[in-house]
Amino acid sequence: MKNTQILLANRPEGMVKESDFDIVEQEIPALQHGQVLIKIHFISIDPAIRGWMNEGTTYISGIPLGGVIRTFSAGQVIESKHPNFAIGQFVEGMLGATSFAISDGTGLKVLDISKGSIPQHLGILGMPGMTAYFGLLERGKPQKGDTIFISGAAGVVGSTVGQIAKLKGCRVVGSAGGKVKCDYLRSIGFDEVIDYKNEDLDLELRRKCPTGISIYFDNVGGDTLDTALLHLARGARVVICGAMSQYNDMKKVCGPKNYMKLVTARAEMKGIIVFDFQNEYPKAVKDISTWLQEGKIQSKEHIIEGIQNFPQALIMLFEGKNFGKLLVGVH
Amino acid sequence: MKNTQILLANRPEGMVKESDFDIVEQEIPALQHGQVLIKIHFISIDPAIRGWMNEGTTYISGIPLGGVIRTFSAGQVIESKHPNFAIGQFVEGMLGATSFAISDGTGLKVLDISKGSIPQHLGILGMPGMTAYFGLLERGKPQKGDTIFISGAAGVVGSTVGQIAKLKGCRVVGSAGGKVKCDYLRSIGFDEVIDYKNEDLDLELRRKCPTGISIYFDNVGGDTLDTALLHLARGARVVICGAMSQYNDMKKVCGPKNYMKLVTARAEMKGIIVFDFQNEYPKAVKDISTWLQEGKIQSKEHIIEGIQNFPQALIMLFEGKNFGKLLVGVH
Is the Cβ–Cβ distance between B209 and B173 less than 8 Å? Predict the structure, then answer.
């Protein structure tokens, strides 16, 4: 039994490249007391990985050069010397881009498979789903009749925000790139969709949000944020969740030059850090899994098979070529 | 009796120039029923004037070419055919850059001279003072022990915010340009002062706000806003009041590229539009005039004599060469 691992070969400048990674095979060391051995089934491909590949800052420690790429991953316990974990349990944690992981249990969460599949536990029932739930409800504070605009709407966060906003009585407008993603958004109940690759965002926002945007849920930053600011309704809430367009070069971030619109629109801009709501995750998981089971919301996963395809999967994420929550399947 | 008026000759590109104005003498027309004639004593020089000189937008109508420059001005009623205004009363309103103004009473406010001088009524007891009061108390929400950082601190808004924040138990740090203004800020009780013309803002904020900024009151925008964002304490409030560094060229506004710090600091960014608090002005005027009379806060006015010096006064404002609330005195 060999362990395939994805290591950080270089700190990327700008866009990640395949040459930034090394793929190695390692022996699996013998398990120590207090440890569990996990066969990884899925590795979650998240935008945050790009930040972890940089040198550390005061609030984020970088992955060391030559270290295993940090990821959320999930799998099954196949050996345990830890009293809290038993063989056969499904678990999730920051286990890295690896086919086998050894954990001392820190941050390791046992998954309740009755609530959803393992891919769902890494997506709509995991960090992205929690981000959508608390970002919308606690920061966006949706009211019946509000118009919400969501950028990066076809992503797991965006599509979950949109579907929950519909349940809360909002008019939901989303932007995504290309016809396929836009059709998908319509199929899950978005009222209006803007194809940012083929349509003029400013013009379409004027048409599709004629009374302005009450909540802007920003997953992308850059020009989209700037344009959305111009369309804020009075009293709007801007929820900064991500800046997908900016992650590959945080040194040249494009700031929102229309930020003064916050003043005239009496709007507020806030971020969402999902970890602040950790104590409330169980309620969110219960709500979302119930909505899933009742068919009120849907999830979509995009699985790239084979751990050796991890680098390509991450590149795909930043090129916006995935369609649904992106995961690497590990055999 | 001739009426000297300052007219808009050109829409300025970038910084205002003397050639953007015409100075003319006009006859004063006969007063109609329902009108009052006001001898202007002081014209308020405010950053907003620069915006009004541009072509209008959906939410601000521009001054027409050849029209009288829009300003807040104050003076004395010398003739009245309006039942609500009597000869001898001191009044204030959007009366323009003119030595005599005719008003139908719309927006005209009778001044209570027992509460402060006419210059004070255009400054610390007028729109700038109200902006400081509500911007700090309603948007900044100061708590005892908070560290507040104020840019453009030597201006009437900034110095008033700082003094009220001291009364509310905050540690007050301000930035201003040059030793004279910095010394002034110390003399009115600022705990720490940063001379942005001669000191490194980032370094000084690290030194002078070692636990971070709880409230950032932004009067200037640009690089100062960007740097301040990096020093936000957890849960900080960013109050966008002005963007003095940006008004002369709103087409090339520099957006805050560090806006993602709002996310990591769990901070919020909001604006202040003073007119939203119009119904509460009397309470603010009462509080501020009481503090002035008790010597708990101080005001400072900078008066340029002669209406013909209006263009130079406005240029002075944008060059940061005034020291205190800038007014043009009209004889």
Answer: yes
The rounded distance, in Å, linking the Cα atoms of A42 and A210 is 43
Structural tokens at position B330:
């009209």
Q: Are A231 and A200 in contact (CB under 8 A)?
A: no
| Bridge partner residues of B302 (DSSP) | B326
Amino acid at the residue B132 = A
* Residue B261: partners with Cβ closer than 8 Å, 6 or more residues away: B229, B230, B232, B267
Facing residue for B253 by CB, picked from A254, A257, A269: A257
Contact A253 B257 (CB under 8 A): yes
Q: What value of ipTM does the predicted structure carry?
A: 0.78
Specify the pTM.
0.84
d(CA B153, CA B74): 25
Grouping H, G, I as helix, E, B as strand and the rest as coil, residue B268 is strand
Cβ-Cβ contacts under 8 Å between A and B: the total is 83
Contact A262 B271 (CB under 8 A): yes
Q: How far apart are CA A238 and CA A227, in angstroms?
A: 12
pLDDT (0 to 100) of residue A77: 98
How far does the CA of residue A271 sit from the closest CA of chain B (Å)? Answer: 4
Q: Determine the distance from the C-alpha atom of residue B133 to the mean position of all C-alpha atoms in its chain, rounded to a whole number.
A: 12
- pLDDT tens digits, residue range B261-317? 999 899 999 999 998 999 999 999 999 999 999 999 999 999 999 999 999 999 999
CB A76 within 8 A of CB A123: no
DSSP for B50-76, written as a single string:
HHHTSPP-SSSPPPPTTSBPP--EEEE
Report the SS3 class of residue A205. helix
- Residue B196 phi/psi, 5-degree rounding, is -65, -20
DSSP H stretches of helix in A93-198:
118-122, 127-134, 156-167, 179-187
pLDDT value at residue B236: 97
For residue A82, CA distances in Å to A28, A93, A319 come to: 17, 16, 41
Q: Specify whether the CB–CB gap between A23 and A81 falls below 8 A.
A: no
Cα–Cα distances in Å, from B176 out to B52, B152, B185, B191? 26, 5, 9, 14
Tokens read off for A290: 């119930």
Closest CA to A17 of A314, A330, A326: A314
pLDDT score, position A255: 84
pLDDT band, very low/low/confident/very high, at B251 (cuts 50, 70, 90):
low
Q: What are chain A's domains?
A: 2-123+299-329 (3.90.180.10), 127-275 (3.40.50.720)
Percent of residues, chain A, with pLDDT higher than 70: 97
Predicted confidence at residue A244, as pLDDT, reads 73
Instruction: Provide the total of helices (H) and of strands (E) in chain B, helices listed first.
Output: 10, 15
- Residue B171: half-sphere exposure toward Cβ, Cα within 13 Å: 11
Look at phi and psi of residue B213 and say left if phi exceeds 0, alpha if psi is from -120 to 50, else beta.
Answer: beta
Predicted confidence (pLDDT) per residue in A185-236, tens digit:
999 999 999 999 999 999 999 999 999 999 999 999 989 999 999 999 999 9
Question: Who among A256, A264, A269 is closest to B59 (CB)?
Answer: A264
Closest residue to A268, CB basis, from B59, B257, B268? B268
Whether pLDDT at B56 is above 70: yes
Distance CA B15, CA B35 (A): 36
